[in-house]
Amino acid sequence: MNTSAVFQGISNPFDFIAPQPQQDTELLELLHFVPGLKEILMLRQVHALEHATVWLLSQPRASHPPRTSSHFQVDNESLGGLSTEQGFFLYGDVNISDLRRAVTNGLQRLKNGEWDLAIHPRCGTNVSITMLLTAGLAVGMHMIMPRGLIEQLLGLGIAATTAAELAPNIGALAQRYLTTSVPFNLTIENITKTRDVWGREAHFVRVQWQE
Question: Do 142 and 42 reside in the same domain of the chain?
């Protein structure tokens, strides 16, 4: 595999609330009447496991994967994932034995407190945050800058640059508290080679919910 980009793990600047093993179970019991809540909670946990798996698969096999809290993480850009409420698709050239090992280790390490493994810089959350920030800042700059062409182009450039600077940290914050959750309730059912709804080859990691 071609391990290319290197990403420095986020050192817990946003850990306002430490994840608790029973948090999703208790929330589901409290709001059991909300339709689709279990699926949403499960999707967030699957999303975290997907990210952890990609991180661990990206590490050189000869070395133990470093902790994101204090080391650089190697990001293999040839690997990617797509989460569903039943499990996640893993795209890329990967041996199923290595995948099974990464999923198992990722699940255990997340449960043991390595929560930064749930955050990934190539997550779609970051892309969405960047787009929203750019659009919002562009509208703001359009309103406050003079209407001349040069001034408007300058405002657009400022908006894009500012969004690019802010998006990684805001995206990490959104991942940590909105789009992922430590998979305390997940167990691994099986891993199969399949195709997704677009016909792309992938491995599918199927999980189950446990109370």
Answer: no
What is the CA angle 147-155-131, rounded to 5? 125
Same domain, 88 and 143: no
In a domain, 175, yes or no: no
Predicted pLDDT at 153: 96
Structure confidence at residue 64 (pLDDT): 45
Report the predicted TM-score, pTM, of the whole model to 2 decimal places. 0.85
**Enclosing domain of residue 141:** 125-167
Q: How many domains does the chain have?
A: 2
Judge whether 67 lies within some domain: yes
Amino acid at site 166: L
* Same domain membership, residue 157 and residue 68: no
